[in-house]
Amino acid sequence: MLWVLFLVIAWVAAIVTCARLCQAAVAAAQGADAPAATDAGRALTLYETAFLSGGPYRVSELALVAMHRERRLLLAHTGWVTVVDPVGRDEMERSLIRAVGSAGQAPVSPVRSALAAADAVRALADRLVAAGLAVPDAARNGVASAVSLVRGACVLVLVAAFAALAIVPPTTGAGPVAAWFALPLVLTTGCLAIARVEVHPYTRWASPAGQRRLGEISVPPREDRRPAPGPARTAPAEPAAGAGPAAATGRAPDDAEARITKAALTVLAIHGTAGLADPALRAALRGGRHRGHH
Question: Phi and psi at residue 105, in whole multiples of 5°?
Answer without folding.
Answer: -150, 140
